[in-house]
Amino acid sequence: MAPGIADRSFNYGDGVFTTMLVRDGQVQLWPLHLSRLQLGAQRLGFGPVDWEKLQQDVFATISSAHQVIKLLLSRGEGGRGYSPAGISQPHWYISQSVVPDYAAALEQGISIETAELTLSVQPLLAGLKHNNRLEQVLLKQEQARRGVDDLLVLDQLGFVTEAISANVFFYRAGHWYTPELTRAGVAGVMREQLLSQAAVALVNWQQHDIKQVEAMFICNALMGIVPIRQLDRRTLDITPVQQFIRQVVC
User: Fold this and answer.
1) Is 19 one of the catalytic residues?
2) Of 89, 110, 142, 180, which has the fewest CB atoms closer than 10 Å, so is most exposed?
């Protein structure tokens, strides 16, 4: 089912979404995907969601041993205007696609540079994967213009936040770090999975703090852990990333 003209997500980006990897016919990290959707619906003040039916619909979409499933959860349909008063019950929309090929990036690592565009600071939305992704659309345009594999994105206050569509982890002096994400950014499910398995400190770093990092990776639910071989044209060591991968279950 496609969104109707009165759908709040279509009109205002009033919704949340998650993108899932199906491996061997099973949705990977499903409990974390579901938990993030529930948190987003709660923080945005959605009406009741039939989570059991939503889960059934997600699993019914599986049609291949390996695929991508995207679920978009909208506040629902309503009349003109921003007010959510009198909105129908939440709707969800599910699509599927093939799994991108990350083999070269996973094996060789990628290069990343600091973005010119910065993310808006809004603590009430920080961490949520909400449906307004215009900043990421602009970032993808910047990435294409600059000819790099990805971009390291800061928020408007200068704090290191994330990559375009992935979370970032840094290694320095024998310890791993990742941004706290209290002002901007998306708290990814792979990030959540890794935080539950490894000793990683949550930090609020600015650009000068990353000049001494020795290793770095980005991660999300589809690509897993991708080493960074170059940060702002400075070569990084991928060995700590390889050691980290051997310690965790992705």
Assistant:
1) yes
2) 89
